[in-house]
Give the backbone structure.
Amino acid sequence: MKEKGTRNGHSAGRRRLIAGVAAGLGGAVVGQAHDDDDVDPRLSVPDDSTKLQGPPPSELGARSGFEKPRRLVSRPEPSGGSRTPLQDLSGIVTPSDLHFERHHGGIPKIDPERYSLLVHGMVERPTVFSLSDLKRFPSTSKLHFLECSGSGGAALREPREDLSPQEVDGLTSTSEWTGVPLALILKEVGASPEARWFLAESMDAAVMTRSIPVGKAWDDAMIAYGQNGEPLRPGNGYPARLFLPGWEGNSNVKWLRRIELSDRPFFTREETSKYSDPLPGGKSRMFSFDMDVKSIITFPTFPNRLDGEGWWEIRGIAWTGRGKIAKVEISTDGGKSWEDAELQGPVHSMCHTRFRKLWNWRGRPATLVSRATDETGATQPTKQEFIEARGIGTRYHFNNLRGWNIRRDGTIGFTLI
């Protein structure tokens, strides 16, 4: 398959400098790839790699200088975030350094030796756990996606043709999360059978707090301290966070310092002034936890260009907070007709699932759309169906159809269906 995209520009001055060094070394510069967008990696590649020893192993691995995926920082401030480059990835696991971030008070610096988690309220034995205490419990590892509930909102409110998959839905990522099941902690402290909710509180500058139904704790919630085989990255909750499979990102409180059990929700600032969905008729959905079924095509998309007629593979990802993806359909005529795409294994519950579909482009205008259905039977709505159900003022859980207009010259633009 052929793909075309844009290349980062290179600094002519840096090229001349490195080229001069290369010439002084007999025309071959051998070393590890520079993590610098201004350096052309071709300048360090010998004409024949079999004639020259490569560099030795290092303490930390690095990407090839030819591969430079980057997160897109939407707001470079403590209450900002960064988006995953969905169009640049393969498989279902997001590299930890490309996992999206969303913060309300910046990233706190926390000494793991001084970390503590207080669990109290409607319990028999209020307890303070250190990080080493948490790691003494039997651990579990699960592959699950995480998504900010505002993902896709900007594309609905202000759609533009020059939006990439990263800009549309980059606030979702999948990782392998490792930690202790929260149910084990509740058993350890003697949680009251009368407790119905618990408060999760962060140790960031915003002191983020959310009310969570205690049933989720007994089901599949965990206190995670590992991500993709290593400790959590600071931007994703180091040294420990709450992880709630399939539920909106904001409820997965990072830098967790306190859990308080109660018989009622706490109605904190973040779940009253924020993260409650307005609905038509002046009403509001008080709590919206599950992430709805979604999908997005990641190729061909803006800023790529189809450079010729013929067979192309349409690719993308689908996900749902209510189990597994059951099917994904593809339309090349803007939703007038649909055909099933192939789901690429593995298909895990509450996890990104890849799909693909071969398409013979005849050089005529087309509109590509994906539509996912999960195992509960829920299917992505059109833009109009979404607005009718949720109202024009909604701020979260945007799972309406996304599309891509293919023009006669092969250029591509984002659209809503």
